[in-house]
Amino acid sequence: MDGWALPTFILIGSYLLGAIPFGVIVTRLFGAQDPRSIGSGNIGATNVLRTGRKGLAALTLLLDGGKGAVAVLITEAVSPGAGPIAAVGSFFGHIFPIWLRFKGGKGVATLLGITLALHWPTGLVAVAAWLLAMLISRRSSVGGMASAMVTPVASAYFFKVDLTLMFLALALVVLWRHRANIERLIEGTEPRIGERGQG
Fold first, then answer.
1. How far apart are CA 4 and CA 197, in angstroms?
2. Under a CB-based contact definition with an 8 Å cutoff, are residues 67 and 94 in contact?
3. Tell me: the pLDDT tens digits for 81-102?
4. Where are the domains of the chain?
5. Mind listing the pLDDT tens digit for each residue in 6-25?
6. What is the SS3 assignment for the chain?
7. Among candidates 59, 57, 174, which has minimal Cα distance to 115?
């Protein structure tokens, strides 16, 4: 493929992979409540956890992260250096899935997956920040935003300048997706992990 054909193909293919709504699929397969009917209506692992099925929440987390990582790894195997295109496609596919009328997740797990696939040291720092912030705050939203904000900083620390601007842009999207959470954190009404409520 010449010119824009290959990048366009990668972008569309990774978008469609990222758009797979695993939170909806796993809850339906295992007879759990549709995550879109509770809490914030989000399809991510945090809302799946509100169904009371911890295992399904963990599976959703792994699959949402995995689809981002797979998109990047397959792309790098076929077209070295084009991983960031796949990263962007899968990230926005998760947030705006065509299958669900563009109402998707907040991008945290998928961002972790693509970060690990693009540069695993940065990814490990992001995962550590996510876990630490969640353990301290007991709030999933805090962990997600912390990992997103740390990602471009860690990338810059490792001199991955080619990835830093992209990570910064995606982190800002994650923060934008969490704007309601930020308001609740300021008000002191943000639910802790496992509690019902908005997420």
1. 45
2. yes
3. 999 999 999 999 999 999 999 9
4. 5-187
5. 899 999 999 999 999 999 99
6. CCCCHHHHHHHHHHHHHHCCCHHHHHHHHCCCCCHHHCCCCCCCHHHHHCCCCHHHHHHHHHHHHHHHHHHHHHHHHHCCCCHHHHHHHHHHHHHCCHHHCCCCCCCHHHHHHHHHHHCHHHHHHHHHHHHHHHHHHCCHHHHHHHHHHHHHHHHHHCCCHHHHHHHHHHHHHHHHHCHHHHHHHHHCCCCCCCCCCCC
7. 174
- Burial of 95: CB neighbours in 10 Å, binned 0-12, 13-18, 19+: buried
Burial of 79 (0-12, 13-18, 19+ CB in 10 A): middle
> Which pTM was predicted?
0.92
| Cα 165 to Cα 109: distance, rounded to the nearest angstrom | 19
